[in-house]
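To the team - flavin-adenine dinucleotide complex, inputs and output below.
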Amino acid sequence: MTVVVAGGGIAGLTMALTCHEIGVPVRVFESSRRILPLGVGINLQPNAVRELIDLGLADRLPDIGIATQEWALVGRGGKDIWSEPRGLLAGYRWPQWSVHRGELQLVLLDEVRRRCGPDAVVEAHRLVGYRNTSSGIAVTFEDRTGGGTVDVEADLLIAADGLNSAARRQLLPAEGAPRWGGAMLWRGTAAGPPIRSGASFTLVGNLDQRFVHYPIGPVDPATGLQQQNWLLEMTLDSQQEWDSVAGWNREIDTAAFLPHFTDWVWDWFDVPAFVARAETVWEFPMVDRDPAPTWLDGRMALIGDAAHVMYPVGSNGASQAIVDARVLGAQFVRHGVNPDALSAYEHQLHDEISSLVLRNRGHGPIAILGEIDERCGGYFDDIDDVMPRREIETFMGRYKEAAGFAMEALNAAPRTIPEGARVDRAI
Ligand SMILES: Cc1cc2nc3c(=O)[nH]c(=O)nc-3n(C[C@H](O)[C@H](O)[C@H](O)COP(=O)(O)OP(=O)(O)OC[C@H]3O[C@@H](n4cnc5c(N)ncnc54)[C@H](O)[C@@H]3O)c2cc1C
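Output:
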């Protein structure tokens, strides 16, 4: 009864912790020579935070982020259109958490090594392929330290190898590269004095050009500053070719995009000045993939971005990666470490998450920014003069209803994996 996980990102490491919790031997093979704390801020939705807490990580979360309290939409002129509470303040039993992606990954890595043993994560091993056999699965990794290839036998391969997944390429050879929808993201972090509640997710702009800001750490009492995440987004000509492999690690000079944002300055925030303080700035083309017809191939299952990479607009990517691993773990408990568990996992999540991928291509609740932009260019003294409160509430209500149902369902749902559950080796 062994599981091999390909990819030591958020999905893969959560899978390893889950296997450990339910008594399943697991090893993670990660292609990077060393897992480093890369990336910038990400948001974890309450359903994912709940799973991390169930994994016994409650004490570690405050070291790597803060609970989000507010979500605010702001017009291009810097005045509020809408704001609403988030996480515990919205009524969830678990907070929404804003964290540094790389620091979350390191916490998960540290816990995997502590709980599963120092050799549980093997770096510098890139998945190149797999082969279902009569009794299990044979998985081939390239040893990037120069040692050729390594074959590993297991009962199951869980492929958590992200956006450019090798397992997905083998499963769907005709699929090709991720699909670019025409928008570009530039991302970074810097320390600054708190804005709004000091724990707000703030979104400014219109449908073509946007600024997103949220803090990912507490205020340092000595300096009065906190670590803050920023994102600038711009829609370009989608006919234009994207000239390299889409990835998260492309560094870029601010000169390439900041001229488009020179006058994004309000009395509460100066975008160009703040962006210029970031040590490193990353460029990411907004890519996703069409939903895969299946995530399974015999004893191989895709999870996380490998299964359903989506636009990073709804704070869903990392949250869903965590939930995937937990749902799969719950199915191991029910069915054993075998293809039946993989089928049950796919059955539970595939259709719902495929719809979410497509939904994330639309504008969701931020479509209201487009409407306000059409009416006044985003500049107003009083939002009531542009769009009466009742009209905004009706608009947001469409999305809030869905979110409200989700909150009630989550609050009432039992644990995904019952406390103390173990996989029965006899299954
Ligand atoms: C370096 C990096 C930076 C990121 N920064 C951000 C960010 O700033 N904002 C944001 O919203 N999202 C970011 N993401 C994406 C985000 O982490 C994911 O959308 C989400 O967490 C889902 O996690 P995942 O584990 O499925 O994928 P990922 O977090 O992408 O993890 C996949 C892992 O698999 C490894 N891998 C890839 N190919 C192979 C292979 N063939 N064999 C073995 N291992 C392999 C990768 O090195 C990586 O560690 C980043 C991802 C990476 C890898």
